[in-house]
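Narrative of activities, Objective 1.

The group set out to show that a structural description can be obtained from nothing but a protein's sequence at a throughput compatible with the screening campaign. Below is one input-output pair from the validation batch, recorded exactly as produced.
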Amino acid sequence: MTNTHKSNVDLNEVAKFEALASRWWDKENEFKPLHDINPLRVNYINDRAPLAGKKVIDIGCGGGILSESLAQFGADVKGIDMGEAPLNVARLHLKESGLKIDYERITAEEIAERETEQYDVVTCLEMLEHVPDPSSVIKACMSLVKPGGHVFFSTINRNPKAYLFAIIGAEYILNMLPKGTHDYAKFIQPAELNNYARNAGLETKHLTGMTYNPITKIYKLNDKDVSVNYLMHTQKPQI
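Output recorded for this entry:
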């Protein structure tokens, strides 16, 4: 791995998820929110880019929650992450699920050099807010996807409401996430993400929010509310 690629890895962020790796598939622990939103995310992806028979790479796959769902929809999936402990958990869970997924410890930038335009669909969910330079990852996603292919991002908006909900609420009041999971300064506004995508050569096709009701404990997609968590569908132009 080159120094450039290493420089876009925040070792403190990797360490956070390494420490939690053993609980990745515990649906009643720190990763419960990821399990709860996973059906929304994978259905959104499948609705906009049908997954059956497609070659997909999941950037920042962690313990494999999304990767396994993508495979269940019939995709040929590769998952990459820089945390060895989460990847080991992901590989172990395959023995339970019986699915076939190729996991590798590598950066998006490095694999983009090796596997240019090899994928029909690229997913990069809940990951951009954990790296020093999100634009570098987005450029790598653009390189990985075939012409006409689809790239999906999700992250957290940066505004007072997002700070209140994603950090104060989720980490300190509701204890849905470990304290220190998120750094408000790394949150990304939709306009910023759109600019990153456009500068990389991707076309934004759709934007939707993921809302959470703490009373009903239900997550929903809402095109009219991208104030906290949101998903963006982009596409690489055909040649």
